Fold this protein.
Amino acid sequence: MLDQEKQMVTIAIHPDERFDPVYHRCHRRVTRIHSYHERIVRVLNCIDAQTALWVRCRTVRCLRCGHTIEELDFRSCWN
């Protein structure tokens, strides 16, 4: 979505429901999704516009480790 007045670009990222999420601590695939929530991550400016990622994340439940957010590959770029 491009808001030309505010010069802001928002990119929405949603999980692919065809695949089970992966727990980021033990890297196991899990089938129990506890909840969904959204986060906005600001990224670098792109062609004179602020760029933000709107990410829908799944909180998953691992029987071994407990509740946490699923592993998101693109986040490793910022760690």
